[in-house]
Specification:
The chain is of the alpha+beta class and 178 residues long. Helix content is 43%, strand content 34%. It has two domains: 82 residues; 89 residues, Immunoglobulin-like (Sandwich). The chain contains two helices and eight strands. The strands form two sheets. A four-stranded antiparallel beta sheet has the order 1-8-5-6, covered by helices on one side.
Length: 178
């Protein structure tokens, strides 16, 4: 996941560089009119503006697509990790989440508390989904709480994989006791 986000940052810089290059070319094209005709200058300016708008639109679409791809990857990884748990029992009702707070580098964190209702010590794998104020999924991660005694509570901290801003809420996506 970290590699994917690193590539996204590089692509953001590349898209920004390409946009700046288009702007520079547009500026030079507008200044190099050999005809002296105002209509020719306006035509070139309009063409350059169209190229800038097209490049900007393309860059934004590319970044949005990569953000969706990173989110889909995080969700898929969370599901994959939970699917690997053998003989797990749904424990969603035994999990409670605290209020998300800002953590390292803009990431969000939330305390995860599990309650073991089994007759022996068990471990839990919990998928935590981070959502914005409108309910849109922003990120997903899995945290493990190991060796929780019978009738006892265990805690862990779930951290988002990337920076999140605005109103953030956390929810249990899935939880398995094993």
């Amino acid at each position: 996941m970290a590699g994917l986000l690193g590539r996204t940052g590089t692509r953001v810089r590349c898209a920004a560089g390409a946009l700046l290059m288009v702007c520079a070319v547009a500026g030079v094209a507008g200044c190099s009119d050999n005809s002296g005709s105002p209509s020719n200058v306006q035509s070139r300016a309009a063409s350059a503006a169209s190229a800038v708008a097209s490049a900007a639109s393309s860059a934004v679409a590319s970044l949005a697509s990569e953000g969706a791809s990173a989110l889909a990857s995080a969700s898929a990884e969370a599901n994959r990790r939970l699917d690997e748990v053998k003989n797990g029992i749904d424990a969603t009702g035994d999990v409670h989440l605290g209020v998300p707070t800002p953590a390292d580098g803009g990431r969000s964190s939330v305390q995860v508390t599990v309650h073991n209702t089994a007759d022996s010590a068990k471990s839990f794998a919990v998928q935590v989904n981070f959502r914005d104020g409108d309910g849109n999924l922003l990120d997903a991660t899995v945290v493990t709480v190991g060796d929780v005694g019978s009738g006892k509570d265990g805690t862990a901290t779930a951290r988002s994989n990337r920076k999140l801003s605005g109103t953030i809420r956390a929810e249990v996506g899935r939880a398995v006791r094993y």
